[in-house]
Amino acid sequence: MPNQTVLKHYLPIFNSNKIRNRLLFFKCSHTGCHIEVAFYLFITFVAKQMLKSAYDIAYPRFKRFANIIKSGLPHAINQWENDYQLHHVDNLIDNYLYLILQFGFVNLFVSIFPLGPLFAFIFNILAIRINARRLLCESRRMVMVRLNGIGIWFKILENVSYFSILSNALIIAFSSDIIDKLIYFFENGTIQGFTKANLLHSKIPSNNLTCGYFESKYHGELSDKDLHFYKLFVYKLAFVILYQNVVQWIQKYIEQSITDIPRHLDLRIKKERFLIKQNLKLDTSNSKNEIIG
């Protein structure tokens, strides 16, 4: 269920008609392919988070006011009666889902909207203060349950981080002209004339002018433009494979380098376990001597 909920929030970006067309023809206009997605991400990181912060501030107070009116009790008859009117928090699923979605948007589309991590950092600092006040002062005290981890949410975070590598590789390769410009630079030694070299030219019979336009589709007869298109496609595919493997190797190296438990703490835990075993052995030997004596 959490996997389906998380996936549903990412579909509007992947279902964008403009992005689908760009990925289909592997070509962007001179203005770029990322404007719509960057605008959507800006709304997600700024507008939606501002609305969420306002909701987190206003909703507990509104809920408390509604409970007071519903019960008909005056303000603060007793402390426990006043606390009972506070907002009741029965689970933290919405908080987990909010952070998972934010993590996904930051990682999946960071190549389109590089300011996403900065906005997420700023609003998370604000969210920590708002949630602290909401849980401590404006909500009933929750029943604490001790857990070993965050459960399925960790697997979702892990899968999103792996998929974000492929997502950014495809965006860089097929939804931008970075690879095209690099290939043109290596072949010609300069970037000048790149735009003209990627245009198809058609003569206009009425005024003998030549019109240049972007086109990358194959129409049945192989030409120099078609061969160039397939060569670029091979280079882009090779970039995706290389990018994915290199970033995954770096990710695995960092995961193995940074342990869950610090080394000094691990040594103290092992020392404590050793001392407990020694004390148990000593107690066992003393009890045997007392029985024999």
Radius of gyration: 30 Å
Tally of individual helices: 11
Counting helices, strands and paired strands, the structural category is: mainly alpha
Large-scale geometry? flat
What is the distance, rounded to the nearest whole angstrom, between the alpha carbons of the first and last residues?
65 Å
Instruction: Kindly report the spatial arrangement of strands forming the biggest sheet.
Output: 1-2
Helix content: 55-70%
H and E order: HHHHHHHHHEEHH
Rounded mean pLDDT is 74
What's the total count of β strands?
2
Strand residue content: under 5%
Largest sheet: 2 strands, antiparallel
Uncertain segments of ≥5 residues (pLDDT<50)? 17-27, 217-222
Transmembrane segments: 24-43, 96-126, 147-174
Family: Belongs to the anoctamin family.
Pfam families: Anoctamin
Keywords: Membrane, Transmembrane, Transmembrane helix
Quick structural gist:
With 293 residues, this protein is mainly alpha-helical.
